[in-house]
Amino acid sequence: MKKRSVSAVTKEPDNYDAIRAGIVNLLNAAKAASARSVNAVMTAAYWEIGRRIVEQEQGGAARANYGDELIRQLAGDLSAQFGRGFGVVNLSQMKRFFLTWPDKKILQTVSEKSPKSHSISKVHESPSQALVVSDHFPLPWSAYVRLLAVKNPEARIFYEAEALRHGWSVRQLDRQIQSQFYERTALSRNKAALLEKAAHAEPSDAMTPEEAIKDPFVLEFLDLKDQYSESELEEALIGHLTDFLLELGDDFAFVGRQRRLRIDDAWFRIDLIFFHRRLRCLVIIDLKVGKFSYADAGQMHLYLNYAREYWVKPEENPPVGLILCAEKGGAEAHYALDNLPNKVLAAEYQTILPDEKLIARELEKSRRELELRKRISTGVPLAAADK
Question: How many Å is the Cα radius of gyration of the chain?
Fold first, then answer.
């Protein structure tokens, strides 16, 4: 019996590259379709929530503040049951969404794109109807949120039409709004050329299916955890810093990591949040791998103002911020204390909180150790100073 050669066994099948490429394209298309499907159903659900709020307000409009009370009560109950995503601001935005895109306008938007005739007005008959009419929302929820921020109705209609016509991603839509594309087009003598140029996306406009699924709005809707850092180094430094602060004593109590918050239409992530037991205040920590800048200080004060309004309990002191900059060879730590109501409290914070230089030294030490460990694991030769 003749033995098969090894080369014959291990030889790739004919047309293997074509088969693999076809499967890759199929999976990418399936992921993209999944992201669109989740977004469409979510948008339909938010539109229907807005419709129900508006109709309830119209039925109970005897009191001027009835609508505000309704949204506040719904926000409390829905947030308790479904988590983030149903606060007062979000529900108010859903109400605005319905008022800006009523039944007729939604149907008109997709009339040329979809042959389906499902009536969006029937969505209230059954929750499952949201799945049926989701095709009436061709843009992702993030795009509608961005369009709601456009105050000029004509400009909003223009951006929506162009986004649908050219298939703009949310990034491309945001870039065009930021660059005042509507105003520039109105003033241009060659409008056709400007519109044609806008049809072409820039490399930074593209969004992968993974990025679409990680859209904070989608994660919020599905009540999924959203914890990730921009780099492995930053992730490791946050972990080391957490351990270091907890080892300083029992003053620091861990509250959260990579906490996401939304201010207006922008999303932010706070790296670490602790509660200091002796000071009875939240400690908000923001880590920057690069060098300290004034923009970092401004962002920290934004976090502190938000925390003071939404997170601080009545018996607690105002929060304090800690900005950590882990630039190689020049780690820095800065407390943000000028948001405190008086100098006495600021002095108390300064006395009790860990020394900034101590934290900076630990940050620099952690960075060196992490980089050394990575070089060893990857087989990079060590310099004499590293050994």
Answer: 27
